């Protein structure tokens, strides 16, 4: 990550300089939104997500945030997923598999690539049911209730399995 994306560069008089952050990161967040939402959301929806992204940052201004780029991109992606759920728009992970965010830092890119390789090994270690639950929850944005109905499991069982899946995948990243 480059130095400009560190949150500490945007603290003025012990307060978050939100105006400067908005000026510096609006083009980046718009790119993230356009890449993920494509033409599935209206211009107004995209603008609302952009504004909400900075609002969430402002609400969480006291959290420990190291790099603004990653944090803002994560907020935007989550807001888009929520909007997709609300509008009953489904999206497939294959739409995003070949999208690589450009970063000048080769070391960062190498680390991300290594993590993805480890995750891929982790995905292959999951059994069929675990893989279904993971993809339904994270990539198809299905609720725990919907997953439980589809797989004929209790909601508690689905939550437990998700917890264990995340724990299993985390081991591959360590």
Write the SSE topology.
Layout: E1 11-12, E2 15-16, H1 18-37, H2 43-59, H3 68-86, H4 106-125, H5 128-139, H6 144-151, H7 155-173
Antiparallel strand pairs: 1-2
Strand content: under 5%
CATH topology of the largest domain: Rna Polymerase Sigma Factor, Chain: A
Q: How big is the Rg?
A: 18 Å
What is the domain tally? Answer: 2
Strand order of the largest sheet: 1-2
Low-confidence stretches: 96-104
CATH class division of the largest domain: Mainly Alpha
Classify the secondary structure makeup into a structural class.
mainly alpha
Average pLDDT level: 79
Describe the biggest sheet? 2 strands, antiparallel
Summarize the structure.
66% of the residues lie in helices and 2% in strands.
Would you kindly provide a written description of the structure presented here, covering whatever features stand out?
The chain has 174 residues and is mainly alpha-helical. The chain folds into 2 domains: 102 residues, Rna Polymerase Sigma Factor, Chain: A, CATH 1.10.1740; 70 residues, Arc Repressor Mutant, subunit A (Orthogonal Bundle), CATH 1.10.10.10. It has a two-stranded antiparallel sheet with strand order 1-2. About 5% of the residues have low confidence.
What labels would you give this structure?
mainly alpha, Rna Polymerase Sigma Factor, Chain: A, Arc Repressor Mutant, subunit A, 2 domains, two-stranded antiparallel sheet, 7 helices, about 65% helix, about 0% strand
């Amino acid at each position: 990550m480059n130095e400009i994306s560190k949150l500490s560069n945007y603290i003025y008089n012990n307060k978050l300089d939100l105006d400067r952050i908005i000026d510096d990161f609006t083009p980046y967040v718009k790119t993230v939104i356009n890449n993920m939402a494509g033409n599935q959301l209206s211009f107004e929806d995209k603008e609302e997500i952009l504004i909400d992204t900075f609002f969430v940052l402002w609400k969480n201004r006291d959290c420990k945030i190291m790099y603004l780029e990653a944090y803002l991109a994560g907020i935007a992606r989550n807001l888009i997923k929520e909007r997709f759920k609300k509008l009953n728009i489904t999206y497939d992970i294959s739409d995003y598999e070949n999208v690589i965010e450009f970063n000048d830092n080769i070391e960062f890119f190498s680390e991300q690539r290594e993590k993805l390789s480890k995750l891929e090994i982790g995905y292959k270690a999951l059994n069929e049911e675990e893989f279904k639950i993971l993809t339904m929850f994270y990539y198809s944005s299905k609720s725990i209730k919907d997953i439980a109905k589809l797989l004929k499991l209790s909601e508690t069982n689905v939550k437990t399995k998700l917890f264990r899946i995340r724990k299993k995948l985390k081991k591959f990243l360590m």
